[in-house]
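Here is the promised in-class demo. Please do not try to memorize the tokens; focus on the logic of going from shape to residues.
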């Protein structure tokens, strides 16, 4: 828990966090090795999370959600990362897919999909990245051609979080290839009603082993025009509008991971015997921990301020990009320093610090690489 809660972290959020911490300790951590081996969490975990009210906390109650704000989802995410779980793809399901539906879906679409997402009966994913198009979304190769009352969707996606188990996938595609960015649309693919849809392999990642990250293939998949999200040709604008929240949420993961890493390092150095005392008695160790604690404090203050701004509708894209790149770079730096204090034990995956280290590396890549974040900041007014 935070020692001095920020304005966003009110009693309701603290109650949600306590519920989430209990859930992950009981329902996820005892099965972590099995989830990592199979590269996804059991489907029952999603249903249990739904019953606990931990999915789609910020979706209005009229659509089956928790009726809260994104702050309640953030409180859940923090406890997930502090528990060392990265398998349950909440950041995508609750923090991204649900908000695309809320922002751009029709009332019929919201009532059709959001209640099942909140209950864990549907798992959501969003498919942007392609084998030859990552941060450069304007050059997507996936095509959707209108044919009467449906589109014919063709293309391939990769590095898709929740892709191996998702039931509902928002697919970024070109409906007018000649129009470049203005030709991008978002189609919602229901995987049980999508002949021609195939899942590729679950990808072998450096970290986040329990999080299914997959290749997806669309071979002339018919998608009803009723599954168009927003207006045709407005997909790029919608993606740009939603990406700041995604980048903020990545920053949330970064700070929560740093908090767990520093706790692990302090605990280890105060108990590990060395030179007729413990590691913490060494000045070099204390100074390193002091550096990490300072970086973490600055990171937490920056993050909390960004969350407060976002809740007021005042978080601009440049600041979200700053939060994403700086917090994830600092995450890698702090966790690296903490791991060093474990010596050889820090290199063993049975120790939490090793998992935190491996999981941290992807943070600087997805959601837009940190180099792209700096470009966006430099171009901002």
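The designed amino acids, position by position:
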């Amino acid at each position: 828990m935070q020692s001095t809660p920020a304005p966003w972290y009110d009693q309701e959020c603290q109650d949600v966090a306590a519920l989430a911490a209990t859930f992950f300790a009981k329902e996820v951590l005892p099965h972590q090795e099995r989830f990592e081996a199979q590269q996804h969490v059991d489907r029952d975990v999603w249903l249990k999370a739904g019953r606990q009210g931990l999915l789609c906390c910020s979706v209005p109650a009229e659509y089956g959600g928790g009726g809260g704000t994104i702050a309640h989802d953030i409180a859940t995410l923090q406890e997930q990362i502090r528990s060392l779980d990265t398998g349950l793809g909440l950041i995508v399901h609750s923090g991204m897919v649900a908000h695309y539906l809320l922002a751009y879906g029709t009332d019929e679409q919201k009532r059709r999909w959001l209640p099942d997402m909140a209950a864990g009966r549907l798992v959501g994913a969003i498919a942007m990245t392609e084998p030859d198009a990552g941060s450069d979304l304007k050059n997507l190769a996936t095509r959707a051609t209108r044919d009467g009352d449906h589109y014919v969707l063709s293309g391939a996606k990769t590095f898709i979080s929740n892709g191996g188990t998702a039931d509902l996938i928002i697919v970024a595609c070109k409906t007018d290839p000649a129009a470049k960015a203005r030709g991008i649309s978002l189609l919602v693919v229901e995987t049980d009603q999508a002949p021609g849809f195939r899942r590729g392999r679950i990808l072998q990642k450096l970290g986040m082993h329990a999080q299914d990250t997959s290749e997806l293939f669309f071979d002339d998949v018919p998608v009803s025009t009723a599954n168009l999200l927003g207006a045709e040709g407005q997909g790029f604008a919608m993606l740009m509008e939603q990406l700041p929240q995604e980048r903020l949420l990545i920053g949330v993961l970064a700070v929560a991971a740093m908090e767990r890493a520093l706790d692990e390092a302090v605990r280890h150095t105060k108990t590990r015997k060395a030179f007729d005392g413990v590691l913490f008695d060494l000045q070099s160790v204390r100074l390193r921990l002091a550096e990490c604690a300072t970086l973490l404090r600055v990171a937490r203050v920056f993050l909390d301020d960004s969350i407060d701004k976002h809740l007021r509708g005042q978080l601009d894209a440049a600041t979200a990009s700053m939060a994403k790149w700086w917090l994830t770079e600092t995450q890698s730096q702090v966790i690296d320093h903490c791991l060093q204090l474990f010596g050889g034990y820090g290199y063993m995956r049975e120790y939490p610090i090793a998992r935190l280290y491996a999981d941290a590396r992807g943070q600087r890549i997805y959601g837009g690489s940190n180099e792209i974040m700096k470009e966006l900041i430099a171009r901002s007014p």
